[in-house]
Amino acid sequence: MTAFGLLGSANAATFCSSGRWVNLASIPTPRQEHGTVAIGNSTIAIVGGIAPQYNSTTVFTTDLIQLYDIASNTWRTVSPAPFRVNHPNLASVAPNKLYLLGGLTDVPPPKGQDLDINWIASKDCYVYDAATDMWAEIASMPNGTERGSSVVGVHNEMIYLAGGMTVLQTGYQDAVNSVISFNTTSGLWQRLESAAAELPESRQHATGAVIGDTFYVIGGRRYGQMYHRDTVSELDLQNIEAGWRKSTGHMPTSRGGIFGGAIDGKFYVFGGEGNPNSNTGVFNQTEMFDIASGRWAELLPMAVPRHGTQAAVAGGCIYIPGGGLQQDGKEVIVGGKTAYHNTTSHCDAYCP
């Protein structure tokens, strides 16, 4: 394992005051479209994603996994994922355990088609033990349910995957509305009640979480970057037979490619892409949904606006590693050169 970062005991909780951003040690490898999850209150894990090739404007899918130690503000590289994956579905349930439940992988384009990107969903699933730095294969997603870019919710021993996508290629991407669940105790995938097995609308590149006993799916998009949504869908996991319902509280800024985290009954949503009013196509908004009142509030914008990342909550702060600084596929001049991706190694945290 290799360690990177800053020496000392600096961390977000020490330097971050309420409603402010704090810069942290940069990721050793710039990346976006990766998975991010907290392992306990001490570690943030980033898995897979796409990273720029050395001295090139192209990107590649990686199996790289790096862990951020909150107390020391340092990164280290650990055993790679069992396969190269972007848009992975990640969850942390038991202490030191990280679940990788499918995602998107590189495949050759169909014969006769010239595609820069051709990613399709994998149903392969694994669990990682941070204490031993070991991976173990677990039950694959049932045929036809594979997807990446899902909203992941954890409730007791259950992991729920809502929506997602099965293909993302140059000029085309889909979105699914199905909801599936994995029981970490039995190690089996379980069928949901019919009323809960489908979202009100297909969705990918959304955000959300389980807060209390309710699973929330917020924003995101259907198909392309400009087909984003501002809705909030809710599923009461104690009354799953009642199915999904739409909240009356709409996110102030409709957007996809977003990320966020829940603290003290409030869900914070950041960034995103598909912004027609920005030269980069990226949103800088920070907006907060109060679960109790069903109302939204606009907060201090992102210090470094991004999309294509995820957020993880630990110790009362929301950690946001990496991401894209411009809308993917949009021509932007970076350092005097035309770029279609602008992947960053920046890492910061927001403290509510």
UniProtKB/TrEMBL annotation:
It comes from Aspergillus tubingensis (strain CBS 134.48). It comes from the Eukaryota. This is Galactose oxidase. InterPro entries: Kelch-typ_b-propeller (IPR015915), Kelch_1 (IPR006652).
